[in-house]
Amino acid sequence: MKKLSRREFAGLSTAAAMGALLSGTQGCSREQKPQPEKKDRPNVIFFMTDDQRWDGLSRAGNPYFKTPNMDRIAEEGAYFTNSFVTNSLCGPSRATCLTGKYSHNTGVRVNERYFPHDQQSILEMAGSQGYRTAFVGKWHNKPYGRDRKLDYYFGFRGQGSYYNPVIQENDGGEKEYQGWVEDVLADKTLEFIRRHGSEPFFICHWFKTPHQHCLPAERHKDLFKDVVFRKPSTFNTDYAGKPRAVREADMKIGGTGPTSYVQDWDEFMRNYHRVLIGVDENVGR
């Protein structure tokens, strides 16, 4: 096989993915032309977690817990062990995932920036080709996904909340939903699948978890309570020789002042693993 550059791979993989989805009906709307039979058009659910480390699943050798549902995706599909991104910030990476473009092309270079409507998302492209489309979860960029041409939107502003989240459904007003956020989101995705399962569908189900200040579901609050997590070798670094961006990072463990967001390493790690158990359960659902 010919070796490809990163740029060539990105272009080909994006084109191949869309080609498989659209099944040769480029440029024809749902109303304009009959679509291929559903059996020839795979359903797509794009899961995304927020701040999950590369080793935050048992498939990667994590010794503390099991994530059988995420592992199954790796076992039956593809599992990348040597992948890189050019801009890992939340908002920019989401815009990139939706468009297949670099940050300087989407216009979203840092967080809390405007994601232009003329940057068409993969959901909108799929919708124009006969797919039922839905976005559920954390959009993060402004304006929010409710303003896009989707069949269904169920999302929250900013980071959302772990418990009783305030969420907007389609064009309706924001409303508080009782329960743990990932269970609430999964309920809505399942409802959408039940409604439109007879048609090809494309869903972006983007979890809140495990974004900082992790708060687990009640059923998981006692998991790992006796586990002592091994600290990385750099845990007690004095930051000698490190750049300012590292020294003054605003999410540190321990210390004092506004840059210290959690004091207890083990409790932080317990909650991180607890919420990922909840994610894996909902992937399984």
SSE layout and pairing:
Blueprint: H1 6-22, E1 44-48, H2 68-76, H3 90-99, H4 103-106, H5 122-127, E2 132-138, E3 152-156, E4 166-169, E5 174-176, H6 181-196, E6 201-206, H7 244-247, E7 252-253, E8 260-262, H8 265-284
Parallel strand pairs: 1-6, 2-3, 2-6, 7-8
Antiparallel strand pairs: 3-4, 4-5
Structural features, described:
By secondary structure, this protein is an alpha/beta fold. The protein has eight helices and eight strands; from the N terminus they run αβααααββββαβαββα. It has a six-stranded mixed β-sheet with strand order 1-6-2-3-4-5. It has a two-stranded parallel ribbon with strand order 7-8. The longest helix is centred in the C-terminal third of the chain and has 20 residues, at 265-284. It is globular, with a radius of gyration of 20 Å. Residues 24-31 have low confidence and may be disordered.
Helix tally equals 8
β-sheet strand percentage: 5-15%
CA-to-CA gap between the ends? 38 Å
Low-confidence stretches: 24-31
Order of secondary-structure elements: HEHHHHEEEEHEHEEH
Q: Tell the overall outline.
A: globular
Q: How large, in whole angstroms, is the Cα Rg?
A: 20 Å
Strand tally:
8
Main pleated-sheet profile: 6 strands, mixed
Name the average pLDDT: 87
How is the largest sheet built, in terms of strand order? 1-6-2-3-4-5
Helix content: 25-40%
